[in-house]
Structures are given as structure tokens and as C-alpha cells.
Amino acid sequence: MKFTSVFAASTAALMIATPVLAEPKAEVLHWWTSGGEAKSVAVLQQEFADRGGEWTDMPVAGGGGDAAMTALRARVLAGNAPTAVQLKGPAIQEWYEEGVLADISDVAEEQKWADVLPAAIAEHMKCEGHWCAAPVNVHRVDWIWANKEILDANGIEMPTTWDEFNAAAEKLQAAGITPLAHGGQAWQDATVFETVVLGLGGAEFYKAALVDLDNDALTSDTMKAVFDEMRVLRGYVDDNFSGRDWNLATAMVMNGEAAFQIMGDWAKGEFLAAGKVPGEDFLCGATPGKGFLYNVDSFAMFEVDGDDNKEGQAILSELIVGPSFQETFNLNKGSIPVRTDVSLEKFDMCAVKSSEDMIAAEEAGSLLPSYAHGMALRGAQSGAITDVVTAHFNSDMSSDEAVQMLSDAVANSM
Amino acid sequence: MTQWLERHVPKVVLAPTFAAILLFVYGFIGWTAWVSFTRSKLMPRYEIEGVIQYTKLFASPRWDTAMNNLFIFGTLFIVISMILGLALAILLDQKIRTEGFLRTVYLYPMALSMIVTGTAWKWILNPGLGLQATVQGWGFENFQFDWLVNPDYAIYTVVMAGVWQSSGFVMALFLAGLRSVDGEIIKAAQVDGIPTPRIYSAIIIPSMAPIFLSAFIVLSHLAIKSFDLVIALTGGGPGYATDLPATYMYAMAFSRGDIGQAASSAMIMMMVVFAIVVPYLYSELRAKHD
Amino acid sequence: MTDATLISPRAGTRTTGQKVTRLALRYGLYALLFLFALYYLLPLFVMVSTSLKSLDEIRTGSLVALPREVTFEAWKTAWSGACTGIQCEGLKPYLWNSLLIAIPGVAISTIIGALNGYVFAQWRFRGANLMFALILFGCFIPFQVVLLPMARMLGLMGLAGSIPGLIFVHVVYGLGFTTLFFRNYYVTIPMELVRAAKIDGAGFFRIFWSIFLPISLPIIVVSVIWQFTQIWNDFLFGVSFSEAGTQPVTVALNNIVNSTTGVKAYNVDMAAAILAALPTLLVYVVAGKYFIRGLTAGSVKG
Description:
The complex is a heterotrimer. In chain A, helix 10 packs antiparallel against helix 12 (about 220-235) and helix 10 (about 185-210) packs across helix 18 (about 380-395). Chain A is about 55% helix and about 15% strand. By secondary structure, chain A is α/β, with parallel strands linked by helices. In chain A, the strands form 3 sheets. In chain A, strands 1, 2, 3, 6, 11, 12 and 13 form a 7-stranded mixed sheet that branches. In chain A, strands 8-9-7-10 form a 4-stranded mixed sheet. Chain A folds into 2 domains: about 1-135 and about 295-350, D-Maltodextrin-Binding Protein, domain 2, CATH 3.40.190.10; about 145-295 and about 360-414, 3-Layer(aba) Sandwich (D-Maltodextrin-Binding Protein, domain 2). Chain B is mainly alpha-helical. Chain B has a single domain (about 55-285), classed as Orthogonal Bundle (MetI-like fold). Helix content of chain B is about 75%, strand content about 0%. Chain B is built from 13 helices and no strands. Chain B has helices spanning about 1-35, 50-60, 60-90, 100-105, 115-125, 130-135, 155-180, 185-190, 195-205, 210-225, 230-235, 245-255, 260-285. In chain B, helix 7 packs antiparallel against helix 10. The longest helix of chain B has about 35 residues, at about 1-35. The radius of gyration of chain B is 24 Å and the shape is flat. By secondary structure, chain C is mostly helical. Chain C is built from 13 helices and no strands. Chain C has helices spanning about 15-50, 55-60, 75-80, 90-120, 130-135, 145-155, 165-185, 190-200, 205-210, 215-235, 235-240, 250-255, 265-300. Chain C folds into 2 domains: about 1-40; about 90-300, MetI-like (MetI-like fold), CATH 1.10.3720. The interface between B and C is large, with 103 and 96 residues. Chain C: It is a multi-pass membrane protein.
């Protein structure tokens, strides 16, 4: 006890007295490797270097981090874990249960993270009460993107209910335009699915079904209605959607081949990269329904040896949540800062709306974790649900069957 | 001492390899078998829990699809690659002037990793972007080629790309076989006036039996390990219509954090391998007795 | 070269009608062969033509059409400017790692495979067949199975994340194939040769060195081509057993190509893919001839 407090005091002392003997170090495993994302991480490296730190980059892209997670397992088993790893959602707690995560509560308390982070999001960063991960950004998943020209030409407003959406889609289809641009990959099917669950069922239902996995909710009539709507949406998609990358679907909206796309706010980056202007060339709106589905990227801190590494870890945590990195990173990435006290002056209208909606949702209790992006459930369960969703969307399965399969798959994955 | 060493040198030379294989192949298979009886999630755990993982595996519709696909894909991939490889080899053996060039063209896909050739294939096979769109653009409005996006046919596009990648190698094996057939016998047959197709079907092809076996082993090993191919081409979709056991196992182990489940699927895969390879090894060993 | 040909180009003693048919068949044969060549070349064509387009053209035009305007910008970016993480130095730095892994990996597995094959073919002992069978079965183990236990072993051996560790893994899982190749090659050499050499007083290594090695070039080529392709194109081991600074080129290629939520630059992806494959392509083009010869010389005779 005494020893630990002495130790804690000395680390604290070290942190105040900047010129330390050991140079702080951090090896960072992440999957942000493309232009804009990579530049965003480079900002963090720069800030880290300014604090005297030595950053070792360990990028592994692919499949939303699948390959990175493979590498991480191999590294941990070899007893050679990286300092900080891009992890998110319940995976953080899963790794904590394996006993490999470090405690960064000292930094978090000193920096008063609890005061600036939305409570729902802060909860993801904690392992049994102490802080073990640092959040980077908030992506909103329940966005619907639209080609303004097409909407104007057909006299369509951004839909606020799924019925409105269906009506608009019918109209577009009659006019010979593909209503919904979609890429038929399992995670994209799941993305659409969860927005429909939120839209038709509301926040309470979403929570019961996709967070608590309540069997009554999973087999309810509301869930059947969700699958019915998925079947309807399937009719609004063009014939060649299978396996299409999401950005090609975005391009369809951009080029006027399709009217809408349901996708997280990384799609905005594609529009902006093509020189399109929000509000003029394309529109962003929340998908029909009330609530906010978040996908928060974060870095989990792994247990490492050596003062230089521990020191690096502390500095890194502080910088990640620091206001300056939050602003620069999120401007590059298309997401919004996870801190609620960062000025949004430089952000575009979609990001400002996202931030306002997030704060409102937090108050209304409808700030919810995205299941499709690994925020709500552990891998085995979310995977089992996705299997059913994508099997239903890509076949002529009935909603009754789908609901039954859903219940079975969830039970089987426990 | 020196004499002992002299006598046992062959065994000493083999020892490191054998030890390595025992540990790194059989030891690891044993490890996997053990883990398949546990409830390992994110990381391996070692408390035995019984056959729960196997029960779950056989209850999973996705695993059913994966096994079905392995049989469809495996059979077609092996049969078509063999037929195409043999046909190309025979055609190429007709004193073709541009043989060197053609051979390289047929062989090169083996040199490329599927990480990106997969993207190229995806575009070609996508009805809206590739072949179908192009041919329709030429004025053949009714031309249809939409297997990639059809859950019932998507697995056949995986076969197409797989055959593309491996048939050149099989062609090389057969070409080598054709070149090593005894020329005297063929000349004698020609003198006897036996028609050429008959010479192929009755003399040359039967004499290449060992090559069929080698080609079969190389191809079946590729079929079972096929992973990059599916990931790059369809990502397992539409839905999970093109999942294979290797992709199922990888998804369970690394994206879903269900290592116990992955281990049980790996064991079933190993049994399939066993059922294919052991007869081959048996015939290999029997041949040694003469 | 077999003398049996379906359609012989020399048809001296035949009638004119037969000559015409022969000629037609001959052209048909060439047409068929080139048709197949198209099937094999199509993906490469798509890759090359995409790599020569600008991103705007890809976004707006047909993905499989010829470039309207040829630009080599993408190749330059792929080689030295594409981001593979926070470093944006392209593939260049990673090629070196791959060479450092592939060259020793190929050399060691070929040498050991040659010695093993030599023992299995010419120095039989009790149980040798069973040992050979067990080693051969090792070729079939799916690599996903060995990832986790191998990671643990490499950690225990102190090789985690290092180039020697990766070489070790590739050698272990390549030995089955190299041993098979050499055994099947050496088994065609008469046992009497070894017996005679033994009577002359030559030892195990002496016989290998002066009798077997000199005739091994074709099969060495086969082994080198096979192992080089396997090691160079490996991604799974490369991504799992490397750390910052030891990542091979396939991992860098994956980082360029497979970013999830970033803007996709297909032209750079395709250029990078071709660049990463150039060494193996080169090996196939240069050594392809010997490959067939090596296989002909006996490696495929069971």
C-alpha cells in the first residue's frame, strides 16, 4: 500500500518535472492507414514528439480492424503487447478480462475526463470503475445522405419517418432513379438494419433488442416490422449491390445514379474529397426516428514494462483527449470531437448538427451504441445477429423466419 | 563414436525437421483439439468444458453453408483446374511457336497475391461495372452475367477466380508430364497407324497417373486453404453465401473473439484434410515397397 | 518433347484437302490458345489500365475501360508516397523487409529440404516412410490454426516480432513441400550409384556433394520458385508475427488497399499491387522455363 502510493507520487512527480531521464515511448497499433486518417494520426504523433516522446507506428489495415486484432492476439500471446491499441466498445472490457489492460485513471482524473465526456461514452472507457481507454472521436452511424439535385427535381424533402422514406423511394423508382445506394456487405446490411430498429422501435426498443438482447424484444412484432421494412428497402436497391464497397455506393449518390445512402459520417469524407459542398450538392440528415447511434474510436492502453513506456502511455492518453488533438483529428476524419467543450467553429454543418443531436440525445436518454460497429455487443453476439440480418436481406426469407433465426442465433452465441 | 555417427548420419540430418514438424504441426493440432473442448473466447483458456463448441458448430446454419460450399467449390475447382490444365498442356505441346509467352501468361496468376487481384475480379464480375455492362454496351442488351450478386451462383464466381489462379500451375505439371513420356513408344504407335487422339487417351494420359495424383494433392490443399480468394472477391457474401470453412474459422477466431468455436471448426477441417490426404500417403508408401 | 501432335505442322504427303483442314485446325488451335490467354490476362489488364488513370476518371468512368489519359502519378505514389500508416513513404521501405525474410527463408528451407529428400530417397531406414508421411501431412495444416500457438512459441523463443522469427516460421511450414520436391527428384536416381560410391569409401555428405548436388539445378529451381512465391505473398504470418519495422511488403500493401473508412485511391491500389508482385512475376518469367524442366526432370513422379 505504502509502496504503491510512493510509486504513484513519484510518477506524478515525474510528470510534472518534464525533463525526465527515460525518453517516453509508445508503440501504437491502429488501422488508420489511408490518406486522411493517416494524416489525422500523424497529428497525434507530432504532439507526442513535441512532448519528447518517441512514437513507433504499427499500422495494420483491413476489415474494420480484423487483421489488426489478429496481430494484437499474436502480440499479446507472445508477451509483446503494443503500448496503445485502437480498440472500441465492449472489446475493451473483453481484453480487460484477459488481464492485459493498464489503469490510466491518474491521467483521466487529472484531466477531468468525466466532466467533458458524455456519460454514456465515458462508460465504454472504463474497466471495473477505473479508466483503461482514451476516446478519440464520435462517428454518428444513423446518417442518411442525399443528392440534393435529385430531391429538388422530384420535389422530395429529407424523410423523417420510414413511411415518408418509402413514399419518396416509390416516387424516385417511378422516375427511374435508384432510391437507395447500398453496398451488400454484411456490415453495411447491419448498418441499415440498426437504423431501422431505432427508427421503428425507438430508443427503448433498440436498447432492449440490440444491447440487452432481450428475447421478447428480439421476437416481438416490432422486430418483425423491422424485417418487413428491410425487405421493402431491398426493393429500393439496384441489382448489383452485392459486395459493393460503401464508397462506391457514395459515389452513386454523388453522380446522381442514386438518391439516398444510409451510412456513417465517414461518407462525408468521400463527398468532400470530390469537392462537393454540404447543403448545396448533398444533404445530410438523421435517419428517420429519434436517437443517436454512436461509433466511438478509442485507444486502449495495454500493460507494459518500463518507465519509458508507462510514461509514454500517460502522455499519449492525455494528448488523445486533449482539445487540440480532438479538433484537428476530427476535422480531418469527418467525425466530431468526443469532448463536448471543443468549439465547433471550424466544422461543417453536418458535424455541427451531429454534435447538437448528440447532446440532445444524451439528455433524452437516446444516445445509443451502434451494434453494427461493435459498440453495443461483444463480437460473438453481434456477429450472430449480423449473420441473420445479412442472410435475410440477401434471400427471400420471411420476417417470421428471420425473427426465429435471430433468437436462435443469439442463444447459440452465448 | 565416429562409426556410430557415420551410421546414424541420415537420422541426425532428419532429426531437426522431424522434431520441428512434431511440435509445430502435431503439437499445434493437439493444442487446437484441446482448445476446441473449452469455452475460450478472446484468448485461449484451458478448462475443459466438453463438446459444447461442436454442438454449437453443428447447430449453426452458417457452418452448414460453409461446408456445402467447400464441397461445391472443392469439387468444381479441382475438376475444372485439372481439365483446363490438361487441355492447355496438350494444346501447348503441339509445337506452338509462342509457347514461352503463352506459358508465362497461363502461369503468372500464381505469382500474384489475391489481396488485389480480388478487386480486379470483383469489378470484372460485377454486373454493373464489368463484363455484363461492357457486353451490353456493345449492343447485346440481353447479355446477362450476374453470378457475383446472386446468392445461389456466387460460389461459382469464386470457382472462376480460383481456377484462374491455379490452373496454370496444373498446366505446368501436365506439360512437364507430357514432355517426359517415352518418345519411342509414341513413335511405335504412330508407325502402327494409331490415330493421335487415341495415342493421347490410351497411352500418354494413363502414363501420367502420378501427375494426376500430385495435381490433385496440390489443388485440394489449395481448396481447403482458400481464404484470400473469398475474402477479396466476395467477403463471404452475398449474405454468407460464399463462406468457406477457412473463412468461418478466421471470422470466429479473430473478428468475433470466439476461439473455442474456431478451434472446433478447425478440427472438422483437419478431419476433412485427413480423409483426403491419408489415402494419398498410403498409395505413396505402397509404391515404395517395390 | 513428345512426337505425338494432334495437328502436325509437317503434313508433306497428304492431299490438298487434308492440308487445308490441317491449316484451319492449326489456326483454330492458335485462336483457342490466345482466347485462353485473354482470360488469364483480363485481371492484369484491369489492374494496369486502372493504375494509369487519374482518380477523377475512375470515379466518373467505367472501371474496366481503357484510360482516356495515361498518367504515371499513381505508380510514383505507390512506390514512394502512399500512406501505409502515419509514414507516407509508399512500398519502398517494406520491400527490403520482404527480401530479408524471403531470401534466407528460401535458402534455408531449400537446403534442409534437399538433405531431407536425399535421406528419404537414398538412405532409407526403418520408419522412414512413416516419418515422410508425417512430414508431408504437415503441408496441409491450415495456417489460421497455427497462428496463436506459434505466437506463444515465438514469444518463448525470444523471436517475437523479429525477422529471424518470420524466417523461422516460413522455414518450418515450407519444409514439407521442399522435402517432397527433393525426395521425388532423388528417388529416380538409381540406388546403385550410392552403393558404388560407398564402396569407394565416400561418406554421406561427400556423396551428396559430389553426386547429387551437381544434378540438382532443375529441382532447386522448383523449390526456390515455390518457396519464394509462398513467402513473398504471405500475409497472415507477416501481419501476425511482425512489429513496427519488420512488416513485410504484403502488410504495407494491405494497409494501402484495405483502409476502411478512408477515401479509396484505386489507381494507387492497383499500382501498389503490381509493384509488390514484381519480384515474383520476375521470378516466374525468368525461371519459368527451368520450372517446367525441373518438374519434367522427375519431381512430379510419385
